[in-house]
Each structure stands twice: as structure tokens, then as C-alpha cells.
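TICKET #2291
ISSUE: user wants both folds in one file
ATTACHMENT 1:
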Amino acid sequence: LNDSARAVELLEPLARANPDDNQLRLQLASALLGTGRSEEAIKLFEQGLKDDPDNAQARMALAVSQIQSGATEAGVGQLEHLIQAKPDSLQANQLLILSHLQNRKFDKATVVAEAMIKATPKNPEAYNLLGTVQLAATDLDAARKSFKIALDKDGKFAPAMLNLARVEERAKNTSAASDWYQKTINADPRN
């Protein structure tokens, strides 16, 4: 048995014995996800959110499990709900953008990234996300500009440097790409 299976083995009888314990219910839902029992996990997350609609962690887990199980629109709805409540939620914004990119909905991904910039104008990650969307849409000039703005916010922000290298690779500027890779390594030798 893996850790998730052992957790389910322990938590299922406890949850049956304590049906009103929402924390226990949510722990069981997370463990069920780890065993691939997504449908059961989704039902428990939904029930948990009825009892505690402001539980951002449970809402995020529900969104991820819905997207993974193919209920993408439901998962997107959960992420949008999270972002509406907390526009600067990096994880929710990242997941929502990723979901839109996987479905090639570049306009929707751009709207999410721009809203995050509006909510957190000093955060380099917001500009990096916008650049990532632009890079995926093959708008290299716009992507380059966004990644450079991210670096203006934080001159050692390695993800933007790495993404600038990718932009230059796609633009067939191998020398510039190499320079950005070197800058990434120089910013943090662990890269």
C-alpha cells in the first residue's frame, strides 16, 4: 500500500464514525485523490465546501481534481471563484492560465494574466505569466516585453530569464538565448 492508500484505510472508518467532521472529510478526499478515486474525492470536496465555502485549500483541490478527471469547465469555475475572492492567488491564477493554455484559449489566459497584473502590479510572476501566455501564442515580441518587465520588477527573477532564453530560441537568436541561459545560471548557480 502506498501512503495515500494507507491514509484512506485509516480515514474512511473515522469519517463514517464522524460524518459531521468537515476537516476529516477533506483529509479523506485528499487521500482518495492520491489513490485515483477522483469521483469519490470530488463528492467529498463538494460536500466539504457546502459546509465551509470559504475554504480556499479545499476549493483548489476540488478544481484540480475536476480538471484531472475531465470536468474542466467545473474546475475552471472553481478557480474563477477562488480568484474572485483572492485576485492575487498565484496558484489559482497559474492553474487557470494553464487550463486555458491546454485548451488553446489564449484570449482567456491573457485576461487572467492581465487581471493578476492589475491585482499585483509589483509581482514579477504576474508579468512572467503574461509572457508565458504570449509565448504560447507565439507573440514573441510581446512575450519578450513581458519577461523584461518581470526582470524590471526583480532583476534576479530566474523564471523570466529562462523564458527570455526560450523566446530567443524560438526567434532563432541562439547567441541571445545562450546569454539568457548564462544569466539564469549566474543569478542562482542552483539553476
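ATTACHMENT 2:
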Amino acid sequence: SPNGAHVAWVTYDAEDQTDVELYLWTPAVGFRVFEINASNIAHLANRRRWHGRPTGVWWTSDNRLCVAWSHTYVTPMGQDHAGGDAPDKSDIYLLATYDIDAHTGDWSLGEVWGKSDRFQRLISVSPDASGTRVACLVRNRPVSGFGAANLAHYKVVVHAGDMQANLQHPQVWKGLDSDHGRRSLDWGPSAV
């Protein structure tokens, strides 16, 4: 945390790519480590088998912990447990803020302030200096249409409180096809 009172980290099992855990430690209270999970917000995803994995973790300037929970965990190197397949209806992400007690290290859910639509796989997050606004790189799949199951593109979604907006980013494209990749299946921004 910015004041040095807390440490948060994510563990990832490369063999079982669905085993991703978030831990919190407050050194002032000794060797007491907490596991933070998405069980208290899973109902907000409106999916029966949604399991939140901590894809992004950052601190706000006032020492609150923010977590981007996503059904499909994507490593910092871009590998996911779905084998790179296009997003499905379980691919939803939620952004949550947690309050941490400086004396006990206990955590509590402060608020859930960002929720994606279905078919949106969170790739990475990039918060601003205050930690209250974040740009999310998302792999998006059309919900319907001819060949929609195979089509996917990348976009940037900016979240600030309850507001969210898609960033129009036409100058950065992925893919090697003609027209700077716009006709390929994977196109859009490549990083945030």
C-alpha cells in the first residue's frame, strides 16, 4: 500500500491455471496472512459457475485495495487457462475496492464499481496514480451474428466509479492482414 502498512500478492499455479489466489499481509499485526476471494461478489456476475480470479491488483492513494476479478485468469505474459479461445458467456469481470483495517489487517468489501458485459475477457489493467480510474484491456466477442463464436477483438474500457466508456483507439491495430489488421480476427489495441 502507499503508506507501507499492507502487502498484497497473487499466487498462480502454472500446472492448474485455474488456481489463482490473492493474499494480504499487514506486517504490524505479525504473521497473520489473509486470503481474499470473490465469494462475496460472485452473485453480481449473474452466472451460476462464475469463479472470480484476481487478474489485476492495485492500491488507491488512500490505501484501499482494488481488485479486478475475472472468470478467466490471464497471466502477465498473456496466457490464459481457456487456451486462447474466444471469450464465452462466463467471461465477465468485476472491479472491487476493499477497506483494510490498519490495526488488525482485517478486510471488508467497500464497493463494486465496475462490471463488464458477458463475452469480455479481461487481459490487463492500468490504473491512474490515484487508483480510482482504470483502463482495462479486454478481449471482446460479439454476442451474435454469423461466425460470432470465432470472432474476437480487443478494446480498452475505462472505468471511473460507476461510469465506464470504450476508448476509441483506431491508430493501434493487431494483426497482419491488409488495412492494418482491420480485416483479421484479432484487432484492436495491443496494450494499455
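RESOLUTION: both attachments delivered.
EXTRA DETAIL ON ATTACHMENT 2: Residues 171-186 have pLDDT under 50 and may be disordered.
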